[in-house]
Design a protein that fits this description.
By secondary structure, the protein is mainly alpha-helical. It contains seven helices and no strands.
């Protein structure tokens, strides 16, 4: 990126002393050639040190550790939703080959495979969060919210989880539906 990470770190400060910039470059190892920086990074990576965030100076492993549970929850929810929809859809589509249901599920699968996930996500946020105000726009929970019961806290987390999980499930459901349909058609066309 133009300017590099050091300029990004210091962009909020005005009249930064050039000696301070040189000192920071040396401190962060940004004064070395790029191939040396890469070798140092690779050695550190192999030893389990993945560095610090240039912005917050918090170790990256700590940042990853802070968010891994939410990521796992989102991925598992999307996987379960995808399988719950894709397997029956693929099986019924194969059994009712060339029917209206089959054509509709193939169109769904084509759209799911063709549309980029980031675009689908942006459109889902625009429609369901901004226009219809059904789901929250971001986050894993409402910040600063006091809950009267465990049920309210659970409901809030589900509302925050639903839209990203549905968007993730949409793309993988399309792929799995196509796979299940074609596998099922192969089995149905066997002579046994």
């Amino acid at each position: 990126a133009p300017g590099g990470p050091l300029n990004f770190m210091l962009e909020t400060q005005y009249d930064v002393d050039p000696e301070m910039i040189l000192y920071m470059k040396e401190l962060l190892g940004l004064d070395k050639p790029i191939h040396e920086q890469y070798i140092i990074w690779l050695k550190n990576l192999l030893m389990g040190n993945i560095g610090k965030s240039y912005i917050s100076q918090i170790p990256v492993a700590e940042l990853i550790g802070h968010y891994w549970l939410q990521t796992l929850k989102l991925a598992l929810t999307a996987l379960i939703l995808s399988l719950m929809v894709a397997v029956p859809l693929g099986v019924i589509s194969a059994v009712k080959k060339d029917s209206l249901f089959d054509n509709a599920s193939r169109l769904f699968a084509l759209l799911g495979v063709s549309l980029p996930w980031f675009w689908t996500g942006l459109m889902a946020i625009f429609i369901f969060s901004v226009r219809l105000d059904i789901f929250p726009v971001f986050g894993a929970r409402t910040i600063g919210q006091e809950y009267a019961s465990v049920f309210e806290a659970f409901k809030d987390q589900i509302m925050h989880l639903a839209l990203p999980a549905l968007v993730m499930a949409f793309g993988s459901t399309a792929l799995t539906t196509r796979l299940v349909r074609s596998s099922m058609l192969d089995v149905l066309n066997q002579e046994y």
